[in-house]
């Protein structure tokens, strides 16, 4: 992995959907100018979603997602189609690839309806236009196809005819994809809007056997980068050196950000007049769901004996004997509540569709999930009436320092100039 590359969670996710042999994989190769996807005349070559991080001009860093065919057959095929539909939850831009020589089918119409329901920017790409040329090389329009598209409300900016075979309209396709990103969208920041140039910010990063050898974890890397963008000065220390570091600084830091696991220790060391928060809480705000997660943390008091708590992580990693998700959090919850609780665990792309059996969901910070997927998981919980929080918010609450960890956001709001 190139540590200097844009993290996948920060890239635009482009989902490629369509029936088997519509030319999805060929289209990806034509778009990228590389043989990224396996192409075959045999139906069902792509059996699982395939994600590839790359640069796509003029859009920039993206993740291309090649999905199984929507008309796959049998029980295994049904599961593959289900996987393709699940990819919509992390899709920022959807391309529905249709075999232009066959026209729109019921399978195409069904996923288009779901794309529209989820309000995902989309483009219907009719592939294989090279098969629809007359002897003079002119494009032959099928009146029946045109009428069907009109019935489905497809046309104009939503539709483009291309050929992955001879690269016809591929440049235009790239341009149209780039235009699907909403213009004027307000920029989100992890921490940049909370500090000023030359502010000192202390980052507390424990180094234990669960820490990745030779590097910092993604939220720490991204926070440091955001502070650099703000012109602030990052001071990175372990919790064991924190007290001495604070004494050595000529002026108190403008902010202290800690790893959730060290929250209790750090809160005792950092004076009350210095703003304190955690990486998890910053990322909850960054992905637009802090308020909901705070409400979820306060629900911890309502847990009862034999309740089941779902602990979910967005990534997969080698678990250590004192892993925070499977060991530390369950122990802290049982100690805090004094209840006999049950726990279930998921990681990576797994997230249960049925949530009724749980009383609370505690999610990781979601640094490897893009904003759309994190919001999808939050919406699933909200629709089920299920409280949900994340690691850092829950830990701050159980240590009695949640309110303090949120004060930095209120202070930033007070500093923001009022609009005229």
Biggest sheet descriptor:
6 strands, mixed
Order of helices and strands: EHEEHEHEHEHEHEHEHEHHEHEEHEHH
Structurally, the number of domains stands at: 3
Which CATH class of the largest domain? Alpha Beta
User: Would you identify the regions where 5 or more consecutive residues have pLDDT less than 50?
Assistant: 413-420
Helix proportion range? 25-40%
Radius of gyration: 25 Å
Please state the second-level CATH architecture of the largest domain: 3-Layer(aba) Sandwich
Compute the number of strand runs: 14
Structural shape: elongated
Record the strand order, biggest sheet: 2-3-1-4-5-6
CATH topology of the largest domain: Rossmann fold
Summarize this structure as a short list of keywords or feature phrases.
420 residues, alpha/beta, Rossmann fold, 3 domains, six-stranded mixed beta sheet, four-stranded parallel beta sheet, 14 helices, elongated, disordered C terminus
Structure description:
With 420 residues, the protein is α/β, with parallel strands linked by helices. The protein folds into three domains: 8-179, P-loop containing nucleotide triphosphate hydrolases (Rossmann fold, 3-Layer(aba) Sandwich), CATH 3.40.50; 192-282, Rossmann fold (3-Layer(aba) Sandwich), CATH 3.40.50.11420; 290-398, Rossmann fold. It is 35% helix and 17% strand. It has 14 helices and 14 strands. It has helices at 24-32, 74-86, 106-117, 143-151, 170-179, 218-230, 242-248, 263-269, 279-286, 290-298, 324-337, 371-383, 391-398, 402-415, and strands spanning 12-18, 50-56, 60-66, 93-99, 122-127, 159-161, 200-204, 233-237, 255-258, 276-278, 308-312, 342-346, 360-363, 388-390. The strands form three sheets. Strands 2-3-1-4-5-6 form a six-stranded mixed β-sheet, with helices on both faces. Helix 10 packs across helix 13. The longest helix is centred in the last third of the chain and has 14 residues, at 324-337. The protein starts with 11 loop residues before the first strand and ends in a 5-residue tail after the last helix.
């Amino acid at each position: 992995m190139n540590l200097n590359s844009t993290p996948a969670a920060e890239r635009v996710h482009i989902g490629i959907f369509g029936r088997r042999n519509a030319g999805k994989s060929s289209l990806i190769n034509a778009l990228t100018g590389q043989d990224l996807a396996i192409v075959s005349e045999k139906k069902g070559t792509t059996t699982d979603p395939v994600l590839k991080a790359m640069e796509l001009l003029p859009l920039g860093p993206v993740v291309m997602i090649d999905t199984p065919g929507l008309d796959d057959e049998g029980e295994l095929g049904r599961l593959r189609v289900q996987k393709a539909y699940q990819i919509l939850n992390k899709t920022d831009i959807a391309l529905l690839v249709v075999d232009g020589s066959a026209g729109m089918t019921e399978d195409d119409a069904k996923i288009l309806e779901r794309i529209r329901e989820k309000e995902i920017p989309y483009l219907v790409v009719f592939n294989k236009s090279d098969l629809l040329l007359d002897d003079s090389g002119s494009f032959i329009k099928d009146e029946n196809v045109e009428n069907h598209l009109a019935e489905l409300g497809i046309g104009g900016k939503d539709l483009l005819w291309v050929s992955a075979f001879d690269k016809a309209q591929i440049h235009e396709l790239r341009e149209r994809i780039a235009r699907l990103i909403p213009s004027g969208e307000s920029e989100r920041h992890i921490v940049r809007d909370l500090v000023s140039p030359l502010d000192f910010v202390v980052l507390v990063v424990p180094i234990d056997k669960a820490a990745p050898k030779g590097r910092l974890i993604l939220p720490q890397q991204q926070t440091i980068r955001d502070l650099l963008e703000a012109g602030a000065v990052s001071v990175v220390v372990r919790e064991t050196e924190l007290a001495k570091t604070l004494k050595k600084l000529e002026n108190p830091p403008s902010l202290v950000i800690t790893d959730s696991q060290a929250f209790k220790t750090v809160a005792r060391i950092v004076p009350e007049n210095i703003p304190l928060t955690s990486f998890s809480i910053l990322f909850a705000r960054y992905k637009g769901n802090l308020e909901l997660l705070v409400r979820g943390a306060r629900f911890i008091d309502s847990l009862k004996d034999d309740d089941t708590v779902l602990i979910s992580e967005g990534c997969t990693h080698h678990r250590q004997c004192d892993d925070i998700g499977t060991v530390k959090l369950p122990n802290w919850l049982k100690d805090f509540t004094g209840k006999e609780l049950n726990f279930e665990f998921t990681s990576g792309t797994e997230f249960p569709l049925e949530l009724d059996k749980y009383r609370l969901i505690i999610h990781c910070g979601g640094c490897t999930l893009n904003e759309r997927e994190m919001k999808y998981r939050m919406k699933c919980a909200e629709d089920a009436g299920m409280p949900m929080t994340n690691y850092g918010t829950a830990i701050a609450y159980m240590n009695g320092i949640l309110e303090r960890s949120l004060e930095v956001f209120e202070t930033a709001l007070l500093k923001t100039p009022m609009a005229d």
